[in-house]
Amino acid sequence: GLVFEDTRILIANTITANNDVEWLDWDTEQIVTLDMLRDVDPDNLELAVSGEVWLKMVKNRPDLAQEFAPKIRVFGRCTPIAKVSIIDMFNKEGNVTLMCGDGGNDCGALKTAHVGIAMSEAEASMVAPFTATEKNLTAVVDVLKEGRCALASAFASYKFMLMVGLTHNVVQFAAAYFRLTLSPLTWALHDGGWVLSLAFSLPLAKASRKLAPSRPTSSLLGSHTMHSFLGVLIINVTFLVAAFFVLFGQSWFQCRKWENSFMGTAWGLGDNYESTILFLIPGYQLMATAAAYNFGFAHRASWGTNLAFVFFFVFWTILQLYIILVPSELSCLLSVNCQEENTILGMEISNVYNTTLMPLDFRWKLVGLLLANLVVVCGWEYFVVNGGEMRRTRRRCEEVDGAWKLHHHQDEEQRRPLKPGSSDQLLSSSPSSSRKRSGAQIV
């Protein structure tokens, strides 16, 4: 319901000669003046006003209209002009407004509100961005779920693309340190394959079935965003450094050595084990990062329901494992596990050893590092970042529930049901309500 049972309800009765609002107590039928109203506890008070009185208040006492608008729970018998005036007042106060209407005289208010939902396929649907064909108020919940899903997906894409840029920077810094570069085809696979497909499919997640008790973050530099982003970045850099330490600890490893003939082409600086690590590890880290950000948390559907993303993730993972474990012409194109017999005509191995083949046991170590990186990144995002937010949300809800139960336990003997009234009767609150209602009903 809109109002708790033990809440005091005042109805705007009329506008006095000196342009003050005269209020009528719903329970006692006592006249309440403006000065008396301001002395009433605002936490235990709800206001109702008719459209006629509201327009007079806006015209004669705009200061009172601005003061009482957030406290008015029900606006009754409103004309189209009154409805537009009400929405406009809330918009001017910096609120985000949502308006539902069944068409006809609701068109102006539907257009004025930030979010308009038409419960009809008639003319109202032409000015409202959303239309509910079933004419059910549950459409409001659907719009909120879709909006929150869109916001969460936008932030997931934002964090992923930010991570792509920083990952490429890390690769470039490491390449400059080792005085080498990746082959052109590896960069093409990075940007044209992995990044393009994952960035395209990541926002395609559907909305969650249930409306979460809190909205997703809207801050680019908020704690939730920064914990998610910086945590994944630190984990990825740590695994990249660990991969180099594992490589340098191998008995067969030799640092890259060049001849002058290798320096005339970009391919000449990519045939070495350091470039192999810089291609394989950061490349799969992009996939692991996208997989972590694909978690729906409370606002998007579960991980596996984003079928387009699952397809690309599985496809690129299998391809990456194939490149690592199986020496072939494909791996030679990417300067990984390349031998003379696997080279393509005209693409010789540009190092003094004439090979970039890694021992099988080391290839399995790389696979273990990649999968461990995936598990740690997903665990950080799921349990630490999203799990921490879920625990904070649950704690806030429990605090509100506890305060509500304590308040109603103390006032249990003083509760009075609402008096039966006309068709504009206010709805009583549900015993399962957990917090003070927000929003207003315009009829």
Automatic annotation (TrEMBL):
Q: Which GO terms describe its molecular function?
A: ATP binding; ATP hydrolysis activity; ATPase-coupled monoatomic cation transmembrane transporter activity; metal ion binding; P-type transmembrane transporter activity
Q: Which residues form a coiled coil?
A: none
Instruction: Quote the biased-composition stretches of kind Basic residues, using this chain's numbering.
Output: 434-443
Topology versus the membrane, per the UniProt entry?
Multi-pass membrane protein
Show the segment(s) annotated as Disordered.
408-443
Where in the cell does this protein reside?
Answer: Membrane
Q: Which residues form the signal peptide?
A: none
Task: Give the record's GO CC terms.
Answer: membrane
The protein's name is Cation-transporting P-type ATPase C-terminal domain-containing protein
| PANTHER family linked to this entry | CATION-TRANSPORTING ATPASE-RELATED, CATION-TRANSPORTING P-TYPE ATPASE N-TERMINAL DOMAIN-CONTAINING PROTEIN
Major localisation? membrane
Positions with biased composition (Low complexity)? 419-433
Which parts pass through the membrane?
Answer: 192-208, 229-253, 273-295, 307-325, 366-385
- What keywords are assigned to this protein? ATP-binding, Magnesium, Membrane, Metal-binding, Nucleotide-binding, Translocase, Transmembrane, Transmembrane helix
